[in-house]
Design brief:
2 copies of one chain form a homodimer. The first copy, chain A, is of the alpha/beta class and 271 residues long. Helix content of chain A is 35%, strand content 20%. In chain A, the strands form 2 sheets. The first copy, chain A, has a 7-stranded parallel sheet with strand order 7-6-5-10-8-11-9, with helices on both faces. In chain A, strands 1-4-2-3 form a 4-stranded mixed sheet. At the A-B interface, helix 7 and helix 11 of A face helix 7 and helix 11 of B.
């Protein structure tokens, strides 16, 4: 699908080649969606992609000669039958968004799945509604992974999970945790409830304190926009409205911090 | 100290005026330190500064005419005897770092205090060693505030707490929570221990799981650099080495998420 003429062996050597340009265009959201592919930058992300989801990795690009960090990752890719192309450093820099891709990058195929699949049989899932900051979305995905959650769902109007900053913020967790994107939040709540999950709306105005909430049953946590908070329709649709106690004078917690507190509270209660 | 000629009443009306230039220079760290002043941008930060620490606010600048958001904050400032200057919008934009200061900004005086003061009589304090990301530092300060912590200490080599991005990330908590900056971490650990606090090093390699740690005694939490983790010398100097359990496949948590989990665990255990 991605227009990258030439076999992997005859790698691109010019920063102006069509293949380099095609990879570089993955920084653009509409182009990403039109080809269903995204850029995976840096050793940690490429290593995790190759280790956990080689099936979605189209091609790995590594600066020639590979070094002690990029070399083992390139070998692991080759062993997983992922095409590996060595390129001069300026070519990798021309392909990538970050200032320091650290010698390795890859093109991956979209790996989100339908929300129905994410919630089925799950014990702990996060729904992010109208989340705008890619760093927040990526950090929540990473935290959900650490907390052993079964999945993350991004609503319509939320940030694109394949945005470069989001991918980097997941620190590889994008390839560990099942996730869905561009979903109707009301639809997800209905699906999750039908799958046996309790729906907890995280909201500062929640009548139930996190300290008192029963977090043992299978749970869908719902978090809202960074500035406006959770949509009243979603607050009303939840089974319970839960607030994190504020012991000091802060008005609220940052979204990623709030999600960390709630997800770990759930993870610990469920174990 | 800050070279801003002209009385508050004869406010700056030109984007090129010396006063505007002096305020704009507060975006520069060495200049900030030379004058001991920093920029407070946007309604939330200015509101919290005026409400909680009017003693450190030199002057508030508000776009003329004040609107329904900036007006009440400007009035509160005036009532607290803080000089308020109305300026045309281009002047406020020329003074500030953010694209949208939302009609209000202020100049504040440094309000950090010695670490000894922060730990004395405290039940919960955070030490951030070699933290480099201003967003992380600010988010931890905000989270510490929400968790009812008594203070935050930044080590030598950590980000400047008066950096614009850090100030914004605190969402006003910079004016709620006592904090220290540019401290020797080993010195802080000794001082905290002398003040009766237990020193807990947050480290993925910690032998004690957060689930099993006794978090009721007065505690100093120590967190290390985002990429390298905690310095071995500090790990060794702690009373206990605590790890957040990783239930999934993530390698670690993001610093701000880890701090949120640990600080809330402490806050809940201490209540």
């Amino acid at each position: 699908v991605l227009s990258v003429p030439g076999s992997p062996q005859s790698g691109p050597t010019s920063v102006r080649s069509q293949r380099v340009t095609a990879v570089r265009r993955l920084a653009n959201g509409p182009f990403r969606r039109s080809v269903g592919r995204f850029l995976i930058e840096g050793p940690q992300a490429v290593r995790e992609a190759v280790a956990h989801r080689p099936d979605v990795v189209d091609e790995v690009f590594v600066v020639t000669p590979p070094d002690e960090v990029s070399g083992p990752i390139a070998r692991a890719a080759a062993e997983a039958a992922v095409p590996v192309t060595e390129v001069p450093e300026p070519v990798l820099l021309a392909m990538t968004e970050t200032v320091h891709p650290q010698g390795i990058a890859a093109v991956g195929r979209f790996l989100d799945r339908p929300a129905t699949e994410v919630v089925t049989g799950a014990a702990l899932v996060v729904l992010l509604d109208q989340i705008r900051d890619p760093g927040n979305a990526g950090t929540v995905l990473r935290t959900a992974d650490a907390a052993g959650a079964d999945g993350v769902i991004l609503s319509q109007g939320s940030v694109d999970p394949y945005n470069g900053k989001c991918v980097r913020s997941t620190a590889g967790s994008l390839f560990h945790v099942p996730f869905a994107a561009d979903e109707s939040s009301m639809g997800v709540i209905a699906t999750a409830r039908a799958a046996g999950l309790r729906v907890l709306a995280a909201t500062g105005a929640g009548a139930t304190s996190l300290v008192d909430a029963d977090l043992r049953p299978p749970t869908l946590w719902v978090f809202g926009n960074e500035a406006r908070g959770l949509d009243p329709e979603l607050v009303a649709a939840a089974d319970e409205r839960v607030s994190i106690p504020i012991y000091g004078r802060a008005e609220s917690l940052n979204l990623a911090a709030a999600a960390a507190v709630c997800l770990y509270a759930s993870a610990m209660a469920q174990r």
